[in-house]
């Protein structure tokens, strides 16, 4: 695909692709830049994207969303951030900083204990009720935006993006829903934005400015396209040269904010088109744009000025180069799962991707050693191990007795997860392209021996478990793998799902969508929150019991214990066991002493998720 460069304000962008701001959670608590940042931004810049809007940078600690978020509130931050601008410039891209104060979306653990907002209205995402900002605090934040702009210029950024949307502080001032003030900042809902624009514009030393907005928050009385017009026209007066549109907001509508796979693309495009028709500035649009067919179709329509790319550049920082060089079969596609990116940012592990362990690392280069690596198991750990071994120039053979993909295949069967087929295909295609030899047969000691390997890697995954509960043998029980593979089908009307972990909750949703009455139980009283669980809670076909252990299956029903109480859940036609899986170490135990190097990775070593599987493959090949 050949695409011309374009101007954004005074900047010349070599192509229409811009990296959208994505939290990394790589910094330390004092906001120092480290090697993970540098690897991430180096990979991004080398990958061909024209302009990189770096992760949101807080103008004050009180505006941090995450303890490991970068700040620009003190002078030492200039030196820190210069490391990022240097690595971006050295590798051929332009650098833009995203300046933000999160307001009520701030995390008290990161913001110094206090959360501040125009009014004391709870953020439904963090469940924190902020304190109403005093006028003095408002002025401090305005000044902080100005100082941040001056520091951004000194740090070598080419542009500044002001966060004016996505549910953060400027946006919180814009509507009565979040701004109930009776002073001048309540009467004139644009006043705070105006003061920030003025402060940034005066201090930015002529840098080009971009305004980030949420085209439509998709919540009652929230910001819509028409509301944005006044904000954008105001911003224009202060030198803003382009509008960067996302959707939803961090507090109320995170599904839209992250462009989760369940959000409809026609609604997305209609909103962006409407906003574009109302303004006369170039527009950058985000949300699952990392799809060559979609990019081609939208380019033909002609109304998009720049494409913002978030997760597609996390899954493959070289996406743009591959697209422009007509190497789309080499792209490592994003599956929209949010597991390696968002959930790892939230947990503090830091931005990653289920299929790309190199997000914050340097890619492997050819080794001087010549090794023969034999891998048993063609799931995500095994395939990834084959790819990384080939990167180092080793011979790699993968044995798989069933279908390539392992538990990754199950992930493609869950609701809204068909998009996961793309990263799975990318993984398999990359392995084949790199010259990994696949042998679709059972591995045995003799077969491995005949290859004379220097390294045997056991990636045999895990087996589904059925719990040993009194009376379970009287039930029609399906293990989770057989359910997802479709080899055993649920019967009757009522289904009991044992375990509400990642796999269990997906089984529950599939069953409820098919019309079954589903009861899910889990011994844990606190479940990991994700978008699937949020949907289950709103589905009337589903009842969830946490902190609940099944004691007995009997003719009178299923008896479960909740603390000191025993309850009867009634009778069920089918029981699905998703209580977890158990590492399959059979072959490992048989051969571990028969070769000089035998290693075990992925679920076969310790049951976890796809992210951990590919990471374990990375760590292993890094060692050799
Ligand atoms: C882990 C993660 C963190 C994000 N953090 C921010 C943020 O702090 N500010 C912001 O404006 N957008 C943020 N976004 C939204 C992205 O910039 C982008 O709009 C969104 O992911 C949709 O684009 P995509 O489908 O290309 O990922 C974040 C997205 C992800 C996945
Ligand atoms: S973890 Fe999932 S959503 Fe995030 S970048 Fe990777 S494939 Fe995409």
Describe this structure in words.
The protein is an alpha/beta fold and 624 residues long. It has three domains: 15-332, Alpha-Beta Barrel (TIM Barrel), CATH 3.20.20.70; 372-462 and 582-623, Rossmann fold, CATH 3.40.50.720; 472-577, 3-Layer(bba) Sandwich (FAD/NAD(P)-binding domain). The protein is built from 23 helices and 27 strands. The radius of gyration is 26 Å and the shape is globular. Iron/sulfur cluster is lined by residues 311, 314-315, 334-341, 353-355, 423.
Number of domains: 3
Tell me what portion of residues adopts beta-strand conformation. Answer: 15-25%
Gyration radius, in Å: 26 Å
Overall mean confidence score, pLDDT: 96
CATH second-level architecture of the largest domain: Alpha-Beta Barrel
Give the termini separation.
38 Å
CATH top level of the largest domain is Alpha Beta
Unreliable parts = none
Please summarize the sheet with the most strands. Answer: 8 strands, parallel, barrel
| Helical content band | 25-40%
What structural class do helix, strand and pairing data support? Answer: alpha/beta
The CATH superfamily of the largest domain is known as Aldolase class I
Going across the major beta sheet, what is the strand order?
3-4-5-8-9-10-11-12
Bound molecules: flavin mononucleotide, iron/sulfur cluster
Number of strands: 27
What is the 3D shape?
globular
Helical stretch tally: 23
State the CATH topology of the largest domain.
Answer: TIM Barrel
Keywords:
about 625 residues, alpha/beta, Rossmann fold, five-stranded parallel sheet, globular
């Amino acid at each position: 695909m050949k695409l011309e460069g374009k101007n954004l304000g005074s900047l010349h962008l070599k192509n229409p692709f811009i990296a959208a701001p994505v939290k990394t959670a790589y910094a330390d608590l004092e906001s120092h830049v480290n090697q993970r940042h540098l690897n991430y931004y180096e990979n991004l810049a080398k990958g061909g994207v024209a302009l990189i809007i770096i992760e949101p940078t807080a103008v004050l600690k009180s505006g941090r969303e995450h303890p490991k978020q970068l700040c620009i509130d003190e002078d030492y931050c200039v030196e820190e951030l210069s490391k990022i601008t240097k690595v971006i410039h050295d590798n051929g891209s332009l650098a833009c900083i995203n300046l933000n104060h999160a307001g009520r979306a701030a995390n008290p653990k990161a913001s110094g204990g206090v959360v501040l907002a125009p009014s004391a209205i709870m953020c439904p995402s963090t469940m924190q009720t902020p304190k109403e900002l005093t006028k003095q605090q408002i002025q401090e934040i305005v000044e902080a935006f100005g100082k941040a702009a001056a520091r951004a210029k000194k740090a070598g950024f080419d542009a500044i993006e002001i966060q004016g949307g996505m549910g953060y502080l400027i946006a919180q001032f814009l509507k009565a829903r979040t701004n109930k003030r009776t002073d001048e900042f309540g009467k004139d809902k644009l006043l705070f934005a105006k003061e920030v624009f003025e402060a940034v514009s005066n201090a930015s030393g002529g840098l080009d400015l971009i305004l980030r907005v949420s085209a439509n928050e998709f919540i009652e009385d929230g910001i819509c396209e028409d509301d944005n017009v006044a904000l954008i026209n105001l911003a224009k007066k202060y030198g803003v040269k382009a509008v960067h549109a996302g959707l939803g907001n961090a507090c109320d509508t995170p599904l839209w904010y992250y462009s989760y796979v369940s959000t409809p693309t026609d609604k997305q495009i209609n909103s962006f088109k409407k906003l574009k028709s109302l303004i006369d500035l170039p527009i950058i649009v985000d949300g699952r744009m990392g799809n060559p067919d979609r990019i081609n179709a939208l380019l033909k329509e002609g109304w998009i000025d720049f494409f913002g790319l978030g997760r597609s550049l996390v899954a493959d920082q070289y996406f743009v180069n591959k697209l422009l060089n007509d190497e789309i079969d080499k792209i490592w596609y994003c599956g929209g799962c949010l597991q390696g990116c968002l959930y790892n940012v939230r947990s503090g592990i830091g931005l990653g991707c289920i299929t790309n362990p190199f997000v914050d690392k340097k890619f492997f280069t050819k080794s001087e050693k010549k090794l023969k690596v034999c891998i048993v198991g063609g799931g995500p750990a095994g395939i990834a191990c084959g790819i990384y071994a080939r990167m180092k120039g080793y011979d790699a053979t993968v044995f798989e007795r069933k279908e390539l993909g392992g538990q990754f295949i199950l992930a493609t069967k869950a609701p809204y997860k068909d998009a996961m087929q793309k990263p799975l295909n990318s993984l398999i295609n990359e392995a084949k392209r790199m010259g990994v030899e696949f042998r679709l047969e059972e591995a045995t000691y003799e077969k491995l021996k005949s290859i004379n390997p220097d390294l045997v890697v056991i990636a045999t995954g895990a087996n589904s478990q059925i719990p040993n509960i009194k009376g379970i043998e009287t039930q029609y029980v399906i293990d989770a793998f057989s359910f997802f593979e479709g080899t055993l089908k649920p019967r009757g009307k009522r289904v009991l799902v044992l375990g509400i972990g990642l796999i269990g909750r997906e089984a529950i949703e599939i069953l409820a969508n098919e019309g079954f009455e589903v009861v899910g139980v889990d011994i844990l009283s606190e479940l990991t929150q994700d978008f699937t669980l949020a949907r289950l809670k709103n589905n009337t076909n589903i009842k969830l019991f946490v902190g609940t252990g099944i004691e007995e299956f009997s003719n009178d029903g299923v008896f479960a214990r909740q603390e000191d109480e025993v309850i009867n859940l009634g009778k069920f036609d089918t029981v699905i066991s998703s209580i977890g899986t158990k590492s399959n170490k059979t072959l490992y135990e048989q051969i571990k002493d028969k070769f000089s190097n035998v290693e075990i990775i992925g679920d076969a070593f310790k049951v976890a998720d796809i992210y951990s599987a590919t990471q374990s493959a990375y760590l292993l090949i890094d060692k050799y």
